[in-house]
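Assemble and predict.
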Amino acid sequence: MRFGVVVFPGTWSDCDFHYVISEVLHEPVRYVWHRDRNLADLDCVILPGGFSYGDYLRAGAVAGKSPVVEALQEFVAKGGYVLGSCNGFQILCEARLLPGALMRNECLQYRCQPTHLAVENVETAFTRGLRLGQVLTMPISHGEGKYHADPEPLREMKERNQIVFRYAEADGRVTRAANPNGSLENIAGIVNPAGNVLGLMPHPERAAEAAMGGTDGLLLFQSLLGSLVEDGSFLKR
Amino acid sequence: MRVRVLVRLKPGILDVQGAAVKRALAGLGFAELTDLRVGKVIEVELDASTPERARERVGEMCRQLLANPILEDYTLEMVDDLAPRGAVR
């Protein structure tokens, strides 16, 4: 499986993702510059965290209209996998590849801390190795991670089982106290209706080695790699 | 032609920045303050044959990039080019 890690001016988690994919997972990976439209050799595109284009205008707004994200629309329509973390999630929402929007944290503080995530959907390629209700621990690091969606899109998302992760207590209870940024209904991560685009505010790449305090982030990659083996994507190449 | 775009959070969306600024002003003794919302101003200068055309193009810019329709409303205002520059800045 071939990964691409997109680099915008101001991206900061690109090297972390590249390291985890090449050195921990031992999978082929290359950087993709934000002006690059050629994604044909890739199975999964990563939109890492950071401050693309300085977060000017709105977080992810300018990146959401960049050449690589325009190319991503076609990549996604053809069934390619996309994982956006933190600023990558903001970009996916701005590009309308995912519903809703991310806004300033309700507490107004930048939050950099471990969070517990309750798993709500194990039907996606990114989560099929997990158990329903399983609790993952991954750090967040953002100032604009408050998820918002209007009531009608939210209802549709629930109907289509698009909510994947919610901020929770260590025992999996979804409480107001466990919500670090004021996100609507504790939403931390969602997928598109087709299930091939995942956006989440937490950082799986920062929870990928025991030395870093945990390896729960690897579970998303391992699910994805397993999915591709089973659906024959490896054999097609 | 110059168009001033005012982008604000939609009514009903909690404006946490506005709330913080409001608390700060209340702390300075502005007891009469009842509400405050923070928005942003974007001034666009463009070539357009008529003010209507300018409005239409800037409206399109708002829909595509300048505002996020999920969170924000925008209003447009023509900035009179004949006015002294100091007055509009």
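Chain B touches chain A at residues 13-14, 16-17, 20, 64-66, 68, 70-71 (CB under 8 Å).
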